[in-house]
Amino acid sequence: MSAGRGTKALGAYALERLVNAVPLVLGVIVVNFLLISLAPGDPVTALIGEFPAPPEYVERVRAQYGLDQSVPERLVRYLGSVVRGDLGFSFANRQPVLDLVVQRLGRTMLLMLTTVVLATFVGVVLGVWAARRPNSAVDGGATGFALAGYSIPEFWLGQILILVFAVWLGWLPAGGFRSIRAEYVGLDAVWDQARHMILPVLALSFRYMAITTRLTRASLLEVMNADYILAARARGLSERRVLWEHGLRAAALPIITVIGYNFSFIVAGSALVETVFGWPGVGRLMYDSIFTRDYPVLLGILLLVSITVILVNLVTDIAYALADPRVRY
Amino acid sequence: MTASPPARSAGAPSGDAVLELRAVTTEIRSLRGRVRPVDGVSLTVHAGEVVGVVGESGSGKSMTAFSVLQLFPTKAARVIAGEVLLAGRDLLTLRPEALRRVRGREVAMIFQDAASYLNPVLTVGAQLEQQLQAHDMARGAEARVAELLRDVGLTPEVAKRYPHELSGGQCQRVGIASALACSPALVIADEPTTALDVTIQAQVLRLLARLQREHDLALLLITHDLGVVAEVCDRVYVMYAGQIVEEAPVERLFAEPQHPYTQGLLAGVLDLLDPKPIQAAIKGSVPDLRDPPSGCRFHPRCPHVMPRCSSDVPPLLLRGESRSACWLHDDPDASQGAPT
Amino acid sequence: MAASAPAATVGAAAVWGQLMRQRRGLLGLAMIVVLALVAILAPWLAPHDPFSTSRNAFLPPGSAGHLLGTDHLGRDVLSGVIYGSRVSLIVGLAAAFTATVIGILVGAVSGFFGGLVDEILMRITELFQIIPRFVLALIVVAFFGSGLFNLILVIGILSWPQTARLVRSQFLRHRTLPYVDAARVLGMRPVRIIFREILPNVLAPVIVVASLDIAQAILLEASLGFFGLGDPNLRSWGGMLNTAQGYVQRAWWMSVFPGVAISLAVLGFNLFGDGLNDATDPRLRSGS
Fold it and tell me: Whole-prediction pTM value?
């Protein structure tokens, strides 16, 4: 009866989800292609950017993407280039777009993953706290916090954090990836990096803490009314164990989903926050590329970030299947 | 069904009482007002005895069961008066931690819809082991779980299963295993077979009866099914609108029901050619407890209603082996004419 | 009308009554009303032309004639904040309206017809949910220009998936109900069944999502503005924050006030949407 569970089955399930993700990736590439094709003016501009490029290169791009060919032919050629990893060349950065974005993506992921971990932890703790005493002051505070989190733009929060902690209090650096003047090594370097991360991570986390808090609260309140919670108490489990082993275990399912599916919004938040703090990741690159009209970089970011989101959703689905025995795979 | 000690008549001294409720009142507070689904209920369960509590839905029988361990499906419910004596100790005065130690160890519960009383994301084995751990029986828990599952007619492999992989009957067997896990003095079963298919009902009921005998358990059985009562119980309490209206040894109840409400219930159940629900035997329905009828709560539906029924509350009086709360029995002549 | 619609339909009057009883929803509504008044009365409320520069750059709040101070070009911050409400409100309302219309169309067609149509439309919806909205909006605006009309269109076109999913699930539920069957038996055309029979019954949750969409649209517009992609001919809160970014250390008021304005506007619509949600949720409406 427990057929369908086990490592082998899980592998098959993961593979199935992966196959399901392929049309989405193709869809993202087609969206990119449509943007290039529909952009006003010469499509070669979208492929090269408004940076003075050598005429030979412009001609090569025209030939490579078959810009004088029919639309289906161009789509096939574009797909071919992307699949080979050719996302064009950034003249503003003198680097192939793929290398450039992948290099920046690492720093952005550092910011985003720290945010996800922090937001999940704080959100779950606050949500549990609020749910344990519904309609209390704590609950009211958590609800207010959640509403603020939904409403305050993260880039403005970033500016305010800089104002308070860097300008007025002088506790933390106002921006940057690490200190440029001092050459730190070992633990000092890690500490230096961490100090530069605190404010951006706080600015970026706020909204996701709010979302997680609100969701944990709602989910837990619903779960704690379930019959099996009463039964667990009747078996003599302590309130703490009922809450953590039964309540939160069951309430975790919607939380997993929300963390995964909000990743696409964290990307936007991170772009804005990086810009505020001068964090040299994908977001800052995006901001700079708008002013240099470096379109291939923008399109490359859209593509790679979308694929990252698809992968995160894939991981979310698998995590959900692992957490919920009722999911058949 | 069990070899109950002889002097087990109503009103017997409570010397060997495992559980004794004394005038327990439970209140639910909501925005719509206060309701007392359990209003001054007293009942006794002796060692090794199977005691039934019957009544229509809404009569407060399940709330009486929940009142023992002070666990309610709603946070708004609270026991506000009375005593719940477990071997002489009042559970209402226990501190939370002491009460926790009673739950699942000294008093265990079996619920109606077993599947929904098991956590869907934890294995059966994990949930049973948690209970053993909660009562400092973690050592050898795995073997104990296997033994328990065998006891209730399941294979030990069931421990690795999740609730959704089991049938309703299997889930209820797990529920029974959990009730037995810590060898409690008393098991409270709230409609344990109601949610099951008819054929499965009989199996689960037989299992429960066998285990009760083997372990010499005291069992408080909440049900609306008089067939179950006849088959399993030694003694029965009949509840109506939050109060006990009759108490009798099971044979006496079926042979000579005293209270007009019980008579109505039995008239319904004995009419085998017309298997209507038991409620159909009595006109009307359970009153709104927000505003219960004055005097005897059954008087608006009673075929023998007399003037004093609406003004004075009848006391629970001993008559032969039964006790009933009805003004008919105040005057010994009046009861002669009562239909049976 | 052949058969009556399900009784679960919540009357507008009842919803209004519920909303009036909730402090949060009411507060949200009050904030929206204030925002609308400020936007409408901007020319009379603003002490200065929001674009007129002066020599008095970086005046702190409380300076004579400049309650909230001036920016690096000597423009009045208060006037900027007042005029900025117009951009936020127009973009928020129009974009959410666009998104709701698209979402209803996609969701209704998908849920009513089902089958292959549903499969394809839901795949497209999924794609739109996965692609980071902000990044795509950024590129489209960078390509096509950042005029007010473009902003509305882009934000609207990128914000419909949630409404579409909601409408689809409602239609899946309703299309098998007796009153829809009756309409079919009477030979009503699908378009008529969708819009005249089913849609009115599923509108309540759609309106809740729409009011939350307004909040999201205001945030997205502000984000684009912060990236320098707002309408260059209008003063917007996002645009003011873009300017302020360079002067955080020197003129905190350039950051603080437009940000507070954005937060309050978004909060207003969020509160209102929450209140509306509670007011239309039949589960919460027990009790006499």
Answer: 0.82
